[in-house]
Amino acid sequence: MGTMNKTFMSFAIAALLFEIAIGETYIVGSPNGSWDENTNLQTWIKSQRFIVGDNINFQYGPPHSVVEVTEADYNSCEASNPVQVYTNGNTVIRLSSPGKRYFICGVTSHCAGGMKIEVETVPAAPITSSTPPASPLTPPAPASFANPMTPPSPAPPVFSSQPPTAAPPQPSPTAAPAILPPAPSAAPSISPDLSNAMVPSTNEPPIIEPPEFASDLLSPSSPPQPPLSSANKEHFHHLILPMGLGFGLAMILGF
């Protein structure tokens, strides 16, 4: 963008210099008159606008001339102290600087008759670019860091006026059949006689009668003993009865 602006300005300046070098050429008194007494030169000069670089062309014949003078000599039509005198009949004067310049005819009576002009030159108009000036580049704004995400606040619980609906019962899983341990084998049955003998009665203590003969307590292989007398039998009964009771109690307590 900056290079294009510089290029455009360069072309504009070159065009201005070319225009200044060439400029416009204005024929005095044209289009219907010239530098003479019959043309209303004051009306013509007021309708013109001259800028730096323009040219004015005086076309005339004898006895006329073109004399450049100061402002004071212009007002008094005095040609005796000229700035420049032209007499070739086709005078082109370049307006190379802004300001006022004064021209009169060298014949005093002609100047007094109106053959004089005051030429005002203005500076060339400043060059205006059709494109707006490039605005300075604005640095990009720093990237804003995103704020950490705020977790959404939990929604307030909504209380319903209706009682909660009971959930349908869930089917219970099928219970696996219980594996029962094998039934213990029945204990060997005890004969009624033995059980009755082993279990004492709760009402009376068991009475165990001693054997009548001592041979019942001896092993079968023992030789037979001679029979006892009545006195010995009575003594034997008194001795064996306590022993039998003790043996029976020991057996009951053992079971």
From TrEMBL:
Keyword ATP-binding: no
One family name in Pfam for this protein: Cu_bind_like
Chain segments carrying region Disordered: 128-231
The keyword Metal-binding is annotated on this UniProt entry: yes
GO MF: electron transfer activity; metal ion binding
InterPro entries: Cupredoxin, Phytocyanin-like, Phytocyanin_dom
GO cellular component labels: plasma membrane
Keywords: Glycoprotein, Metal-binding, Signal
Annotated Phytocyanin domain residues: 24-123
Residues in the signal sequence: 1-23
Compositionally biased intervals (Pro residues): 133-142, 165-185
Protein name per Swiss-Prot or TrEMBL: Phytocyanin domain-containing protein
Originating species: Stephania japonica
